């Protein structure tokens, strides 16, 4: 029998086409098996011709065993995890390809797990996810670099905060931090000015698009089926047979499909998707607060001036910024207490390009994520210069160019203590066969493989 995963190649076709083709294939298979109509034979996307084994076993068979909503890095990782576990998975994505929202609008940093409160999901899944991600990148050739990060105290007043961060990291199981004196930092990064620093050797960078492409490839290879241009617009999840209403983004046509289980990994839209699922107690849906973060990149040629005339100790030229200085590490200031980000840091891409950000700009309460304006204006650069020069005094005037922005899906608002990832399964919301993920901001890319494991565990927990 031909592999049903081939349907995922039908980019530009929505779920109605997909399901029709899937149903036809089921009928063909049934006819070939001598049973005129037996839609219970197969699940759409099942890697083999085994029956669906879902929570709907006693009732009518679903169209797919699991429907995963959202093909960002987290939805992809979950879909892959479930497909590799032998589940028949249909991945529903509103856009025309994977990873077009927050997963392609971030710093692409593999975080070490320094910042998050001990015992939080962010701490646990970042530390576990980091190790899994490095192993994944190595095994499957995903471009990445473990270049390390300097966490700098820019004034004597910040030294205590640096020590506190080292203690927090240790509590999270990050034991490889190295304290550095001012002169040791000068050896490593002559352009950086600080009082002292911590070196985090396990922080790195990753080509997130290649990573997502590899997750998707493995998902398909394991028999998963993808429907792009397929926006989930509602459903009913109370019973064992979940109903999911899907709108074809091209035709506007709506289709209803059934699934034994549903995972909502819709990122910025997870709350809206959840609110449209009949049978999910509305009180379990956390609030959504949107915090935009913008990046500026270092203009071409600026690296030649970054260290002024005293470029001694600077290394060979490289990167998109032109000749002269070359950064070897990511450089992070200490997070400002009470702000919602990690500070305007210096990140590098795999080609050596330098960018700074993200800042924190709270969007008005109630902003519909579908209306987000991701543009940024050159005038936003002014506060960046001040923030960056606290650790990089040689940053030349007029060297920053608008780059891109992303938006953090937060479950807490301005001035509140940082929120955690929220991964709700039956134990949390009372609906068997449903997992909702909310607030998957940073370090969601780093934690993606660990988040996938947790989501799969909660979805498949024996009592559901
Ligand atoms: C500024 C910024 C910097 C960051 N930096 C880092 C970093 O350096 N390291 C790190 O580890 N993490 C970082 N993160 C966090 C990381 O980017 C996110 O945690 C991660 O990308 C979230 O992935 P996701 O799959 O949950 O969401 P998304 O990537 O947003 O994917 C959700 C998908 O669901 C789809 N969708 C939405 N609604 C529907 C619907 N109704 N039907 C079907 N599909 C739907 C969307 O089209 C989208 O493709 C950063 C985030 C931001 C905003």
From TrEMBL:
Recorded GO MF terms: (S)-2-hydroxyglutarate dehydrogenase activity
Cofactor(s) in the UniProt record: FAD
Catalytic reaction(s) noted: (S)-2-hydroxyglutarate + A = 2-oxoglutarate + AH2
FAD dependent oxidoreductase domain ranges (all copies): 66-458
Family of the protein in this entry: Belongs to the L2HGDH family.
Entry-linked Pfam families: DAO
Entry EC number(s): 1.1.99.2
UniProt keyword terms in alphabetical order: FAD, Flavoprotein, Oxidoreductase
InterPro entries according to UniProt: FAD-dep_OxRdtase, FAD/NAD-bd_sf
Protein name: L-2-hydroxyglutarate dehydrogenase, mitochondrial
SUPFAM superfamilies (UniProt xref): FAD/NAD(P)-binding domain
Protein source organism: Chlorella sorokiniana (Freshwater green alga)
Domain of life from the UniProt record: Eukaryota
């Amino acid at each position: 029998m031909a592999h049903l995963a081939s349907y995922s190649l039908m980019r530009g076709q929505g779920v109605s086409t997909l399901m029709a083709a899937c149903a036809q294939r089921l009928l063909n298979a049934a006819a070939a098996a001598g049973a005129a109509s037996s839609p219970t034979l197969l699940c759409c996307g099942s890697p083999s011709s085994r029956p669906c084994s879902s929570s709907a076993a006693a009732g009518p068979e679903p169209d797919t065993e699991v429907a995963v909503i959202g093909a960002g890095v987290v939805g992809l990782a979950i879909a892959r995890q479930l497909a590799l576990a032998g589940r028949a998975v249909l991945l529903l994505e509103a856009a025309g390809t994977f990873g077009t929202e927050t997963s392609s609008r971030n710093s692409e940093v593999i975080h070490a797990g320094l910042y998050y409160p001990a015992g939080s999901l962010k701490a646990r899944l970042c530390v576990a996810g980091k190790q899994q991600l490095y192993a994944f990148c190595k095994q499957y050739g995903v471009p990445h670099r473990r270049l390390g990060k300097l966490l700098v105290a820019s004034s004597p007043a910040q030294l205590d905060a640096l020590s506190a961060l080292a203690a927090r990291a240790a509590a999270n199981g990050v034991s490889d931090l190295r304290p550095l004196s001012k002169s040791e930092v000068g050896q490593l990064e002559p352009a950086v000015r600080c009082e002292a620093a911590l070196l985090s050797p396990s922080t790195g960078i990753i080509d997130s698009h290649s990573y997502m492409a590899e997750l998707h490839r493995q998902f398909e290879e394991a028999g998963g089926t993808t429907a792009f241009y397929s926006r989930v617009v509602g459903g009913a999840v109370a019973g064992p047979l979940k109903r999911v209403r899907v709108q074809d983004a091209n035709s506007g046509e709506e289709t209803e499909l059934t699934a034994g289980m549903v995972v909502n990994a819709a990122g910025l839209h997870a709350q809206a998707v959840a609110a449209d699922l009949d049978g999910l107690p509305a009180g379990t849906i956390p609030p959504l607060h949107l915090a935009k973060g913008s990046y500026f990149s270092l203009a071409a040629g600026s690296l030649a001036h970054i260290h002024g005339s005293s470029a001694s100790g600077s290394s060979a030229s490289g990167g998109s910024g032109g000749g002269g200085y070359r950064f070897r590490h990511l450089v992070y200031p200490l997070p400002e207490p009470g702000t919602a980000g990690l500070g305007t840091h210096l990140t590098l891409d795999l080609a050596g390009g330098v960018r700074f950000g993200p800042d924190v700009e709270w969007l008005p309460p109630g902003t519909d994520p579908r209306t987000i304006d991701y543009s940024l204006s050159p005038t936003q650069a002014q506060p960046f210069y001040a923030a960056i020069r606290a650790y990089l005094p040689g940053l030349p005037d007029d060297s920053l160019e608008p780059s891109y922005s992303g938006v953090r899906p937060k479950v807490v608002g301005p001035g509140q203590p940082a929120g955690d990832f929220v991964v709700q399964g039956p134990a949390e919301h009372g609906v068997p066969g449903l997992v909702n993920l909310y607030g998957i901001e940073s370090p969601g890319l780093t934690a993606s493989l660990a988040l996938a494991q947790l989501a799969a565990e909660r979805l498949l927990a024996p009592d559901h």
